[in-house]
Amino acid sequence: MKDQYEVIVAGGGTAGIIAALQAARAGASTLVVEKQGILGGTMVTAGISYPSSFHAYGKQIIAGIGWELCLQTKRETGEDLPEINPQSPRSGLSVNPAVFAALADEKLLEAGAEILFHAMPAGVCREDNFWKLTLATKTGLQEVKGKILVDCTGDANLVSLAGFPVRINPELQAATLVVQVSGYEAEKLDYQAIQAAFEKEVASGRMRWEDPGWSRGKFEFFLRHYGGNRIHLPGINARTSEGKSIAEIEGRKAMLRILRFCRKQPGLESFRIDWCAPECGIRETATIVGKKFITLADYETGRVWEDAVCYSCYAVDIHRSDHTVFRNFPPGVYPTIPLGAMLPAGSTRLIVAGRCISGDWEASSSYRVEASCMAIGQAAGAAAALAAQAGKEIEEVPIEKIRELLRKHGAIVPGDI
Ligand SMILES: Cc1cc2nc3c(=O)[nH]c(=O)nc-3n(C[C@H](O)[C@H](O)[C@H](O)COP(=O)(O)OP(=O)(O)OC[C@H]3O[C@@H](n4cnc5c(N)ncnc54)[C@H](O)[C@@H]3O)c2cc1C
Question: Contacts by 162-165 with C-beta closer than 8 Å and gap 24+?
Fold first, then answer.
């Protein structure tokens, strides 16, 4: 690791990989600081490798570096792209998480970026034209300077360390521990009997209604999908180490409850847990208080902001304790993301990408998805590189220059479609 970089990205997840790749490919010296030992964030460590949505009603609205990485992952694993249905409001594709993460390493190193795993920012302050970042590493505290910081932690952790406020919604979406289960034939089970037994367990306090997911307590939902992205964990704010510890412990407690219950049910005697994600999937913790605020009304009318840097595409999708609120957008609505929603109010030389940019509960429930986070990440990387190289504030970089750089790297910019 060097003493200083033009761009430092905290968090090498869905948005962070793409932000760092864009900054490095634009020629900025770039460091990624990641607390895990693998890149990919929610896509990899939480087991949600199903990026949505590059397309809306058959039209591609997000491309660029995230799309390139997904396509290459598909090519490396010899898989075809799924058919894009022109009638469908959105489309997803699955990517092999291990290959995606390995490719992210490869592409970042090829672009000249450096990656520091097993490290987290512990403090940050301004020093002349730099941010001085103190990192907690395996061997103690280490200092590094950066001209522009990009917070891609998903939780705006760096924004808080720098002293800027965040917004925490009164209700937070449920978290989910992804598990894969087997040892039974879903077609052969007596779901009525299993449901009756489950409801008895819930009444006795031994199980929780939301254990099988967002199906209003239907255990069949969990079993038919062989687990997967199901177990719901409401009421946890996993923004702090304490909060994350509660999420991890509660997730594994729920998994054990399911294991112990299932193995007593007829047809499920050989029920097995084959895999559980190393980290609990977190949908929401906090959003920044940004220079701009994306409301549902802005989002669902497809408002084109004057500083729009990318499109976003997904339904409103709020995971409450045992059900979801889900609403698609009509054809022709292509929500856009303004740069101002990525800039903490009152901050300089600090930009945010990923699920925690500034917006209301409904809008953020939609732009939090992976293709959108990748597009937002690419925009953050472009803005950061241009500002660092020019020695300017991010807002002093003309928006057209940011868009030009994004287009050069394959991104679709609002107005292009
Ligand atoms: C259960 C669940 C199901 C979902 N289903 C889908 C789906 O099917 N399709 C879809 O497109 N989206 C889905 N999403 C949403 C989507 O996966 C996430 O919102 C998105 O990946 C968030 O991207 P991000 O870059 O903001 O955060 P992340 O991808 O989580 O990246 C954050 C990164 O920062 C690192 N980090 C965090 N704090 C620090 C720190 N202090 N210092 C250093 N590193 C740090 C983390 O380890 C991680 O690598 C789902 C989310 C969940 C939880």
Answer: 162/124, 162/131, 162/344, 162/347, 162/350, 164/288, 164/289, 164/344, 164/345, 164/346, 164/347, 164/350, 165/289, 165/345
Q: Of 276, 302, 317, which residue sits at a domain end? A: 276
Residues with CB under 6 A from ligand 1: 10-16, 33-36, 41-43, 46, 48, 50-52, 92, 120-121, 152-155, 157, 176, 229, 281-283, 354-355, 368-370, 373
pLDDT of residue 7: 98
Asked whether residue 416 is assigned to any structural domain, the reply reads no
Q: Mean pLDDT over residues 234-250, rounded? A: 97
Distance between Cα 187 and ligand 1 center (Å) = 33
Atom of ligand 1 nearest to the CA of 11: 34
Domain housing 186:
175-276
In a domain, 9, yes or no: yes
Mutate which of 370, 374, 378 for ligand 1? The one with the most ligand atoms within 8 Å of its CB, which is 370
Name the band, by pLDDT with cuts 50, 70 and 90, for residue 216. Answer: very high
Residue 226 predicted with pLDDT over 90: yes
**Alpha carbon nearest to ligand 1 atom 42, residue:** 120
Q: How far is the CA of 403 from the centre of ligand 1 (A)?
A: 25
- For ligand 1, the distance from its centroid to the CA atom of residue 185, given in whole angstroms, is 32
In this predicted structure, the answer to whether residue 417 has a pLDDT above a threshold of 90 is no
Q: How confident is the model at residue 201 (pLDDT cuts 50, 70, 90)?
A: very high
Amino acid at 197: A
Cβ–Cβ < 8 Å for 97, 106: no
Residue 91: predicted pLDDT: 87
pLDDT band at 284 (very low <50, low <70, confident <90, very high): very high
Q: At what angle do helices 370-390 and 64-76 cross, to 10 degrees?
A: 120
Task: Indicate which CATH number applies to the domain containing 94.
Answer: 3.50.50.60
Tell me what pLDDT residue 82 has: 84
